[in-house]
Structure formats: structure tokens, C-alpha cells
């Protein structure tokens, strides 16, 4: 119950933030821009719209996380409002889970809004058949943002907003390269290959949430992909939040 | 034996969180590994190739077009390597190299590699030719690129194009960074496409300008051969019948 209350407050706070509103407007503007570029695409306008639309959700979501998520906990510590919260019967894990859930919900709302706009645009342009693939693409983008939000909350509980943003961005970049890391590792000597393989499995495997190539063609992905991505996101988020809890529990607020 | 002191709730939560993180981390690790093995992997290069041209991609790089070209180059090389060892299909390679060279028009290795890969593996000589001409238009003073274009014509799959090869070997020989052998290649190509008068001039230039005595000997020999052919009115005495280079017409199944 308490995490839910904190999540509601965080959601309200995040959606009132100008950054989130700005990102929504930027997303819609990006979709409009794709229509200006579509005539240049030599018949590949739909593909361009879907690809850029889904990339926009992912990148703009990351922007929200970096600007809002990485200061979620640090801001409360700085304003000292956290003392009021933690002096009540609110456990630290509940507080962190609430913060993560609230921001994730705000990001899901932005992703859904932009996803609906993308689908409506495609329907108007006569490519409504891409709807299911776009829906799956938006779902996976939402899962990706959920995972990154967990990392941002963890770093926010540990460090300053600037450093948290840098750490989160670093994990995002390495996460996006995790598959390349494996391919690169395969060309190296065995011990190094194993080491890089372990690192590639430990960082967030963000390519798992990327089906833009399929969605751009209007093809839905497999049920196995969706199931594995969902399970992976849930387990990874839970793991990161546990680490955040462990770190936050050992922190003394004096 | 003294009993252990009970843990305070914070310490208990701390340890529980670490234990849970360990278990969940192991599960996430196994899932990541399983997903990598079970699912097809996204191909970012194919995504790049959706874009109509580099002119559209360039503004999106926000002033980092060269960096984007470097990253695209890494991807292009990976793409080439991956397809070379698997299906030998290079459907979008021409477009990828077009994007790459639009992002960085001075990226000479990209023109050369892209053109030879397109001609040799892709079986698309006109795309290869187009890419090299684009490179030369952007880098008109590059003797290196002119020489490679001449070489591309020289080894054209399906039949050498000695006339064009000679034209670009000559162009390369006029540039300061052109390879020293450009003039010799130009003379050789001119001679073997039957253009004996120009070939004679080019050989005489090699003879005059080269400091290599073997090359001077070779030039003198060829000039003598051309003189004899012209004197007897039998051009075939100075023209060799060159075969198509086998390495370039080999096509894997």
C-alpha cells in the first residue's frame, strides 16, 4: 500500500514536470517531421515513420530518465523531505519501489501516448496494418525504459544527480552494445571471450527490447520474444531494486 | 557458548536485499544468456540502410557526422564479414556505403572497400563505379582514389575496361599523391587497348622520369615494340590479349 502511495505521488510529480510535457511535444513533432521526410524515402515512408517513431519513444524516454529519474531520490535528500518520509513507518525498500513504479508509470504513459499517435498517423497514411507490430514495439520500448528507470533510481539513491545521470547513460550505452560485445568476444582468446561473455550477460541486455527492424516491416515478433523480454525485464528490475535497497539501507541520513 | 546477537531490522533487510539481488541477478544472467541463444538478433545495419540517403541522416548526427561515419564503417565491415561467411548476400551494401560516404566524403578507404566489395562480392559493378566516381567528385585531387578507380576498371569482372582504366591511371599519375606506378599502368593499359600513340608517349614519360633502371629498360622495350608495330602496320604485335582476372569472376554459391 505504501509503495503505491509513493508511486502515485511520484507519478503526479513527474507528469507535472515540464520535461515530461516537453518530451511529449517533441515526440509528436518528431512524428510530424517523419512525414516531411517520407516523400524522400523512395517508397519507404512507412518504414521510416515506424522506425523513427519507435526510436523517438526510446530516446525521449531516456531523456526523461536522465533529467528526472536520476534526481528522484537525491532531490528529496537535498530538500530534506526524505527525513519526514523515513521517520514514518515507511521502509526504505518500499520508498525506492514506489519511486521506481511512479516514474515507470509516467514513462509508460508517455510511451503509450506517442505509440497511439504513431499508430494513428500510420492509419491515416494507409498503413494501419502495422498496428500490432507497433503495439509490440511500444511495449518492448516501455520495458526497456522500465529497466533503465530501475538503474537510475539505484544510482540516484547512491550518488549526486549528475553522477547518476552519467552512470545511467553509461549503462544504457553498454547495454545497447551487449550483443556486439558477445560477437566481439567470439573473436578473442578463450579466457577473454569468457570474461566479456560474463560482462555482456551482467549489463542490461537492451537489444532484447529492440524489434524496430521487424516493426518497420510491419511484422510482429514471436511470443517467445515477448515472454522472454517481459521476464527478463521483471527479474532485472527486481535485482537492481534489491541492490538499490541494500545500498540505501546502509546509508545514514544525519 | 555465547549466543549471537539478533540482527536489527535494517541489517536484516540489508542482508536480505543482497541475497535477493544475488538470486535475481543469477536468474537475469541465465535469462540474458538464454535469450541471446534462443532469439534472432536485431541487425542495426539493416536499420541504417532504411534511410533514403546520407543527406537525410547527416542532420540527425548533430554535427558529429564523421563520428557517425566511423560507427557506420565499423558496422559496414561487420556486415560484410558476416555475410561473406554466411549467405554471400549484400542486398543493401550499396546504400550503406552511400550513407557512410555522404556522412564523411573524405573517407577514402570507404569508397575503395565499398566499391571492390560491391563489384566482387555484390556483383553490382555499376554501383561500385558510381561509388568511386562519387569519391573522385568529392576528392578530385586524390591520386590514390583515381588509381584505385583505374584498377577497378582494369579488373572489371566479365571483361577488363582498359580504356577507362588508362584514363584514371593517367589522372592518378598527374596527382602528387598518385602511386609511382600509375604512369606505367596507364601506358600498359593504353597499349593493350590498342591506343599505341598515346601509349608510346606514356612509356616515354616513364623512361624519362623514372629513376628505376629496370623500369626504364621495360619502357624502352615497350617503346621499341610499339615502333615496330606501327612501322609494319601490325598493331597486334604490341597488343597483348589480356584475360579476365579469375579471382574477380569467382562467385560463391
Domain tally of chain A = 1
Query: How much beta of chain B, percentage-wise?
Result: under 5%
Class by alpha and beta content of chain B: mainly alpha
Taking the alpha carbons of the first and last residues of chain A, their distance comes to 27 Å
Oligomer: heterodimer
Task: Give the termini separation of chain B.
Answer: 79 Å
Q: How many helices of chain A does DSSP assign?
A: 12
Measured as a percent range, the helix fraction of chain A is over 70%
Helical amount among residues of chain B, as a percent range?
A: 55-70%
Main sheet overview of chain B:
none
Q: Tell the overall outline of chain B.
A: elongated
Low-confidence stretches of chain A: none
Features:
heterodimer; A: 254 residues; mainly alpha; 12 helices; B: 253 residues; 69% helix; disordered C terminus
Amino acid at each position: 500500500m505504501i509503495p503505491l502511495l509513493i508511486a502515485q505521488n511520484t507519478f503526479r510529480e513527474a507528469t507535472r514536470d515540464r520535461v515530461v510535457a516537453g518530451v511529449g511535444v517533441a515526440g509528436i513533432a518528431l512524428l510530424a517531421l517523419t512525414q516531411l521526410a517520407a516523400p524522400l524515402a523512395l517508397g519507404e515512408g512507412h518504414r521510416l515513420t515506424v522506425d523513427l517513431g519507435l526510436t523517438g519513444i526510446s530516446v525521449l524516454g531516456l531523456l526523461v530518465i536522465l533529467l528526472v529519474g536520476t534526481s528522484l531520490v537525491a532531490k528529496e535528500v537535498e530538500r530534506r523531505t526524505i527525513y519526514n518520509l523515513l521517520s514514518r513507518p515507511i521502509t526504505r525498500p518500499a520508498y525506492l519501489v514506489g519511486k521506481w513504479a511512479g516514474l515507470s508509470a509516467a514513462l509508460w504513459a508517455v510511451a503509450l501516448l506517442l505509440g497511439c499517435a504513431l499508430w494513428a498517423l500510420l492509419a491515416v497514411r494507409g498503413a494501419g496494418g502495422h498496428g500490432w507490430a507497433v503495439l509490440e514495439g511500444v511495449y518492448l520500448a516501455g520495458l526497456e525504459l522500465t529497466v533503465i528507470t530501475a538503474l537510475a533510481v539505484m544510482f540516484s539513491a547512491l550518488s549526486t544527480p549528475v553522477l547518476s545521470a552519467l552512470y545511467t547513460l553509461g549503462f544504457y550505452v553498454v547495454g545497447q552494445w551487449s550483443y556486439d560485445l558477445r560477437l566481439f568476444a567470439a573473436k578473442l582468446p578463450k579466457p577473454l571471450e569468457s570474461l566479456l561473455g560474463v560482462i555482456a550477460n551482467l549489463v542490461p541486455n537492451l537489444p532484447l527490447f529492440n524489434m524496430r527492424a521487424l516493426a518497420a516491416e510491419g511484422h510482429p515478433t514471436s511470443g517467445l520474444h515477448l515472454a522472454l523480454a517481459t521476464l527478463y525485464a521483471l527479474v532485472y528490475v527486481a535485482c537492481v531494486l534489491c541492490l538499490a535497497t541494500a545500498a540505501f539501507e546502509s546509508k545514514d541520513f544525519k | 557458548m555465547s549466543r549471537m546477537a539478533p540482527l536489527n531490522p535494517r541489517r536484516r533487510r540489508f542482508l536480505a536485499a543482497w541475497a535477493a539481488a544475488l538470486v535475481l541477478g543469477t536468474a537475469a544472467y541465465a535469462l540474458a544468456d538464454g535469450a541471446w541463444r534462443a532469439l534472432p538478433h536485431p541487425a542495426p545495419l539493416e536499420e541504417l540502410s532504411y534511410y533514403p540517403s546520407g543527406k537525410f541522416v547527416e542532420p540527425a548526427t548533430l554535427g558529429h557526422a564523421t563520428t557517425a561515419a566511423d560507427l557506420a564503417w565499423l558496422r559496414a565491415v561487420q556486415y560484410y564479414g558476416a555475410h561473406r561467411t554466411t549467405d554471400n548476400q549484400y542486398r543493401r551494401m550499396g546504400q550503406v556505403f552511400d550513407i557512410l560516404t555522404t556522412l564523411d566524403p573524405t573517407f577514402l578507404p570507404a569508397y575503395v572497400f565499398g566499391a571492390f566489395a560491391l563489384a566482387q562480392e555484390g556483383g553490382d559493378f555499376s554501383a561500385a563505379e558510381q561509388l568511386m566516381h562519387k569519391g573522385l567528385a568529392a576528392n578530385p585531387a586524390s591520386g590514390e582514389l583515381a588509381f584505385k578507380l583505374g584498377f577497378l576498371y582494369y579488373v572489371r569482372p566479365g571483361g577488363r575496361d582498359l580504356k577507362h582504366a588508362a584514363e584514371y591511371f593517367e589522372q592518378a599519375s598527374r596527382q602528387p599523391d598518385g602511386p609511382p606506378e600509375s604512369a606505367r599502368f596507364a601506358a600498359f593499359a593504353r597499349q593493350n587497348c590498342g591506343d599505341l600513340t598515346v601509349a608510346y608517349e606514356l612509356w616515354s614519360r616513364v623512361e624519362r622520369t623514372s629513376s628505376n633502371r629496370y623500369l626504364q629498360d621495360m619502357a624502352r622495350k615497350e617503346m621499341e615494340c610499339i615502333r615496330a608495330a606501327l612501322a609494319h602496320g601490325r598493331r597486334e604485335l604490341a597488343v597483348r590479349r589480356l584475360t579476365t582476372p579469375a579471382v574477380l569472376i569467382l562467385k560463391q554459391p
